[in-house]
Write a structure and sequence with these properties.
Blueprint: E1 4-6, H1 16-26, E2 33-41, E3 44-53, E4 57-65, E5 77-84, E6 91-95, H2 97-116, E7 123-127, H3 131-143, E8 148-152, H4 156-166, E9 169-170, H5 174-180, E10 183-186, E11 205-208, H6 221-226, E12 228-231, H7 242-249, E13 258-260, E14 279-282, H8 287-302
Parallel strand pairs: 1-6, 7-8, 7-10, 8-9, 10-11, 11-14, 12-13, 12-14
Antiparallel strand pairs: 2-3, 3-4, 4-5, 5-6
Helix pairs in contact: 1-2, 1-8, 2-3, 2-8
Length: 304
């Protein structure tokens, strides 16, 4: 059995909507066994995520996240993704880490938006101007082809550069942009809330992507109490990520406040209740999502 090596060239064969369908199908299989480890040194993080979905396979993803790297011209996130055969446990493929991360991260939130955002939504706000922000513009454009994008970043120059590259509009007024938005994606490394719940308009959907540590937040408590709360995976968000862990510890919300995760897709529980409902989904990732995404990439590569 040969091991397939799949690099960035596979991206030409991928499709955002097909990926979200694969993610949904993966959650119709037996529940994944997942295990995460987090090691910290100051602001640096070593994250190891493993998953096994019976009938799909096994995956191990190791990621080092060093926020200071870009200043030295080095990528902030580095790592490796390995896939193992479900029946034998043999190494099946090594898939480009950055390719899996890009498509899994944006595809995760795109799946949430396809289920939770109002279908007619057109005004999309992207908070942040890095690679994830760029990926979200591409992903949302696939599901909401008539969308217009407004971009905000702590550094206005970065927002203007991304707007020029993608056809969006940069703004320095986050409150006004939030009040006007129908879909909001937060893609920052912020440790303090940026979006205030009082700014949210009825019917808005939020995809929270950036905060991945216990000391990170992108929205305030009011946003959490005003919105119906969803997550991609309860197992990888509630106990690990500050967006939920912190307000749960203070009694602002409880674990029962989380209405559904992707394992509730088949039952119809992962859905908005009405047009005016504010919906919020925390993207926490997880190796099972990496596994499904990497298997989708492998299948698309084999069909090329």
């Amino acid at each position: 059995m040969s091991v397939e090596i799949i690099g960035p060239e596979a991206e030409a064969h991928l499709d955002w909507l097909a990926l979200t369908d694969a993610l949904a199908a993966g959650h119709a299989l037996p529940r994944a066994e997942v295990a995460d480890t987090f090691l910290y040194r100051g602001k640096d993080t070593l994250l190891t995520r493993s998953a096994w979905i019976s009938g799909l396979g096994l995956a191990v993803k190791a990621a080092s996240i060093f926020p200071g790297n870009p200043a030295a011209g080095v990528p902030m996130v580095n790592g490796a993704v390995t896939l193992y055969d479900d029946a034998t446990g043999r190494l099946e493929a090594i898939v480009d880490f950055h390719l899996v991360t890009k498509w899994k991260t944006a595809g995760d939130s795109l799946l949430a938006a396809r289920r939770l955002a109002r279908p007619q939504a057109r005004r999309i706000l992207i908070v942040g101007a890095g690679q994830v922000a760029r990926s979200m513009i591409a992903a949302y454009s696939a599901a909401f082809p008539a969308a217009s994008f407004t971009l905000w970043n702590r550094s206005p120059e970065a927002a203007r550069a991304l707007a020029a590259a993608t056809g969006g509009t940069a703004t320095e007024d986050l409150e006004a942009a939030t009040r006007n938005a129908e879909i909001i994606a937060t893609t920052t490394m912020s440790s303090v809330p940026l979006i205030k719940g009082e700014w949210l308009s009825p019917g808005t959907h939020l995809d929270l992507i950036g905060a991945y540590r216990p000391d990170m937040r992108e929205v305030d408590d009011t946003a959490l109490t005003r919105a119906s709360l969803f997550v991609d995976a309860r197992a990888t968000t509630i106990a690990h990520i500050g967006e939920l862990k912190d307000p749960i510890a203070r009694g602002v919300i409880t674990p029962a406040s989380i209405r559904a995760d992707f394992y509730d897709l088949a039952s119809g529980g992962f859905a908005r209740s009405n047009a005016d409902e504010i919906t919020l989904c925390k993207n926490g990732g997880g190796a099972h999502l990496d596994l499904i995404c990497a298997q989708y990439i492998l299948a698309a590569w084999r069909k090329r």
